[in-house]
Amino acid sequence: MIIVMESRATKVQIEQVSKRLEEKGFQVHLSTGVERTIIGAIGERTQATQDLVETLPGVEKVVPIAQPFKMAS
């Protein structure tokens, strides 16, 4: 899944979201842009996990990935 952080999300909020995802068994990939940070979470997504992440401070939205895809190498 892809987590889009709010433009005003703090570094602490981003770290907290990443930590929660890692605790749930996800591999986390951060992409920090000029305006926003995007977190890619690779792992087994459940609706409960998605709902939890959506409520974390600093999260703007969660975009589920329906089909598995190969990461570019």
Describe the structure using short key phrases.
Alpha-Beta Plaits, 73 residues, alpha+beta
Map the helices and strands.
Layout: E1 2-5, H1 11-23, E2 27-32, E3 37-42, H2 47-54, E4 59-63
Antiparallel strand pairs: 1-3, 1-4, 2-3
Give a description of the structure.
- It contains two helices and four strands; from the N terminus they run βαββαβ.
- The chain has a four-stranded antiparallel β-sheet, covered by helices on one side.
- The mean pLDDT is 91.
- With 73 residues, it is an alpha+beta fold.
- The longest helix has 13 residues, at 11-23.
- A hairpin with a 4-residue loop joins β2 (27-32) and β3 (37-42).
- The protein has a single domain (2-63), classed as Phospho-2-dehydro-3-deoxyheptonate aldolase, domain 1 (Alpha-Beta Plaits), CATH 3.30.70.
- The chain has helices at 11-23, 47-54, and strands at 2-5, 27-32, 37-42, 59-63.
Distance between the termini: 19 Å
Spell out the CATH superfamily: Phospho-2-dehydro-3-deoxyheptonate aldolase, domain 1
Estimate nothing, just give the exact number of structural domains.
1
The sequence of SSEs as H and E is EHEEHE
State the secondary-structure class.
alpha+beta
Which consecutive residue ranges, at least 5 long each, have pLDDT under 50?
Answer: none
| CATH fold category name | Alpha-Beta Plaits
Main beta-sheet strand count, sense and barrel state: 4 strands, antiparallel
The rough form would be described as globular
Please write the CATH class name.
Alpha Beta
How many DSSP E strands? 4
**Corresponding CATH architecture:** 2-Layer Sandwich
Q: Strand sequence of the main sheet, in spatial order?
A: 2-3-1-4
DSSP strand content: 25-35%
Helix count, per DSSP?
2
Percent helix: 25-40%
Mean pLDDT: 91
- CA radius of gyration: 12 Å
